[in-house]
Structures are given as structure tokens and as C-alpha cells.
Amino acid sequence: MEAIYKSSLKLFSLSMLLLAGSCTTVDFDEVAESAQKSSLKVMTRSSNAEELNYPVIIYAFNETGKLETKQTLSSSGESLSLALNEGLYHLVALSDFSDYSIPQNISYESFISMPDAKYSSSALRMGAADVNLKSGSQTSNISLSYAVSSVCLSLSDVPSDVKSVAVTLSNLNTKKSFRGTESGSETITVNCKKENGNWTTGNFYVFGNGSNSLVISISLTSSDGTETYGYTYNASLKPGVPYQFIGSYTEGLSVNGSIDFGDWEDAVVAEFNFGPGSSSKKSAKTEHVSVTSIPEANTLWKGHVVAGVQNQTDTEADLILLSLNEWTDMTSANHATNPDAAQALADSYVEADMENWNIPTREQAAYLKGLYYNEGLSSLNTTIESAGGVALSVEDEKGANVRYLCENATYTFVFKNNSSITKAGATVSTYRLRLVKVVHVSTE
Asked: Does residue 194 sit in the same domain as residue 250?
């Protein structure tokens, strides 16, 4: 082994906990001729029973974040080598990354992105260590752990006439930097499959949510239309944790048996009810319309503003239309003397050929404010005003947040990212109201 290195070079040792099956030695023989280079020796060993999947890519970023080199381990028995000048380095190791998008020209601030579906079928693992490379022998440990959360939803007692079930999760991050920060809050939709009488998403993997709550919308489609129910999980998703959301359309669901998650942390199991008789709210029956092509979000369709597109496939989707009109100086359903004003406006509103508009649910509010804030809201307002509508607002003339009613006018929200959806007051009469309507379109 000593023949690989020139005597003028300094030896630096780095031990990597890569979750591999056995202890192996990885040698770096790509030593430069310059005496300013230090050789880096890497040791790998397993920290638990679960083996690491190969290949593993190791990135070395310098103190300014520039990528100095990267190396790939194709198997546990391979050796790699590199040479580095003395200095501070950020080392990042990745495995199970094939389903993710990694830019070609990267820096320490670059992002690893989810696939187009915004969730993945494989669990990305990452490890990192900062190394101050000096003369002499040094050791540093890198342990790869899961950089994503595992999510599975299982729904029981769904009516037999339901033909399809889709689950929408709001405000999930879709990008993670080599530094470890997350970004790109979006809404994802996962179609369920029927297995043994229950509808399930199966396991899928996501980055964390951008707030302290996760809004889950469940859409049940039958020949009569689509009904949507909501559930809010009031916590942040943590990497390395499997989340099991178990819902019952009627009564509570009992859980029997055990679940083995291997190297994952203890599972978080959340049980909830949805449907008639539960605390979740049901939307109005969704209208079905045939179209030649599915409209995009932030466009006009038949003179209406398409604010969102959910549950989209190649041939169908649910459009969330946003009313062109806006009402100011509104009271909530919690108001002491005027609790019915908002619902009365919703019941009577007609826009062009469209009736049956609704106050947004909490889930729809979270979805819309997650899509439209800052530049996104300005773009949506351009679309609204092009159709002769009233632009949405973030702040009033005094600089106070403009709060819109949602959830049967019992809660309010602001068009700001990571803002809270809060219970409406009993004395406030300055809320605003914007209505929505869901239309199911199909090209078949």
C-alpha cells in the first residue's frame, strides 16, 4: 500500500460509515506530483444490519463551495483515489439517487430534485462531513442516512361504487441541496390502488413539508362525481421516519400486527376518519366536463380563472376555478351577530355559466397559498385582471395582512408562503372572500 504514495506527500485518513455490509479499505491513488497535495485514505464499515446500495458517489467541495472532485464507488470491494490541497472541504456522499435529478455543473449550494411526479419510489440516502485537511494523519466519519420520509396512506371502508381514489399532499419540498437545506414547496398527487378491499398509495418517498402541518386531501370519484375530504397532520415530516396514515370512511380503524421498517426510525402511525359523519368537510359534487385538452394552472378557461390543476392524468384532471369577484369587509361564520354573510354570497354567486361556487376548504386554501405568493401571486393577478376580475391582495393600505375566509368561513388564510391558517374571529368585520369551484375535465 505504501508504494502507492510518494514519501513527500502527507497522509490523511478518513473513516466513512457508509452502512455497508463489511469493513473495507478505499485507497486514493490519484496523487498529484505537487508536494502541496495531501492523500486521502477512506475506510468504510457498516453501522447496522442494513447494507448500503451501490453505486455511492462522493463529492468534495472546497471552502467556497466549488466542487473539487467526485468519485464513484460501484461496489464495496472497489478502491478509489484522489488528491487534495490542504484546506477545508465539505464531503457529501449519496446513494439510491438514480430516481433523482442532479445537475451536471454543481456546487455545495446546488439542489438534488425529486422526479417530475414530485415524489420518488426510492429512498435517497446522504451523508456529510467537514474536513480540515492538514499535514499528518486525520480521521473523519461520514454516516449515510435517509434524506427522505417514507409515506403510505391506507383507506378502508370506502364505498363500493368509488372507481378511483387520489390523495393530495400540500406544501411538500421537492429539492434538497448538498448543504442539506430544502426548498421548492409544491403540492403532489398520488393515485391509490385497491388491494384487499382497501385503497392504498403504497410506500413513496418525499422531502419535508415547508410548515408545521401537512394537509392531506382525499378525492373519491364515482359515477356521480368527485367528493373531496381533508385531514391535517399537525407536525413536520422528518427524514428517516416512516409515516403511516390510516383512514376510515366510517368508523375508526384498528391496527393489528406489526410493521418492520428495517433501518428506519420508529414509525409514526396516524389514524383518522373521513366522509359523512366525520369532522372532515366534504366539497360539493364536482361537475364533469369534456374538453379537447386539459387547461393549465394560471390560465383562462371559458372565461374563468384556472387557479390550480389537481389529480391530473393523461386524460383527466380536477380544475380549481377562482372567482373573478372578491368581497371585502366580510364577517366569519364565528361572528356573534352576522355569521351567515359569507355562505349566503357563496350560495347565490353565478359567474358566466357557472353556478354552485364554494368557500375554499382549508386544504384548498393551503394549496392555493402554497402555489401563489410573491412573483407567483403577481402572475396570477395578471391573469385575473385580464378577465376583468379583481386582483388578490397580500396587505391592505395600512400594511396589515389581508386574510381570506376558508373552511365554511370559520378559518382564514393569507397569500404568503409558510403562513398559518388560523381560526376566524368573532368580532372582526374586515375579512375578504374569494370563492372556488372544482370542475372535473376529461378528454375521453
From this structure: yes
